[in-house]
Specification:
By secondary structure, this protein is an alpha+beta fold. It has one domain (3-100): Winged helix-like DNA-binding domain superfamily/Winged helix DNA-binding domain (Arc Repressor Mutant, subunit A, Orthogonal Bundle), CATH 1.10.10. The chain has five helices and three strands. The chain has helices at 3-9, 12-24, 29-33, 40-52, 71-100; strands spanning 27-28, 56-61, 64-69. The longest helix is centred in the last third of the chain and has 30 residues, at 71-100. The N and C termini lie far apart (39 Å).
């Protein structure tokens, strides 16, 4: 489930797009392209990847498409990572106990 999120966030440009959206609340691809070293077409492609990963949502407003961050998906990913961290902490504690015996 989180594989798509990690793949989407692995690209520095997509990470920056997501950060800009989080800061602004919403934006169009044209607006975002003004703050990035890539074309509007490239921004649209990056937004498509983020959308498929469930990280952004597109809403048509007249001729414009406005994008917003979907924080619930990031929250779910953070919870998944926290659960993995708990499992690893337990494993490391078990290894430590065995090593100390």
């Amino acid at each position: 489930m989180t594989d798509g999120v990690f793949a989407a966030l692995a690209d520095p440009t997509r990470w920056r797009v997501l950060t800009l959206l989080a800061e602004r609340g919403e934006a169009t691809a044209t607006t975002l392209a003004g703050d990035l070293p890539v074309s509007r077409v490239a921004v649209v492609k990056h937004l498509g990847v983020l959308d498929r990963a469930g990280l952004v949502e597109a809403r048509r407003s007249g001729r414009e498409v406005r994008y917003t961050v979907r924080p619930e998906r990031l929250g779910a990913t953070a919870r998944d990572l926290a659960a993995i961290a708990v499992e690893w902490d337990a494993r490391l504690a078990a290894i430590k106990r065995l090593a100390e015996e």
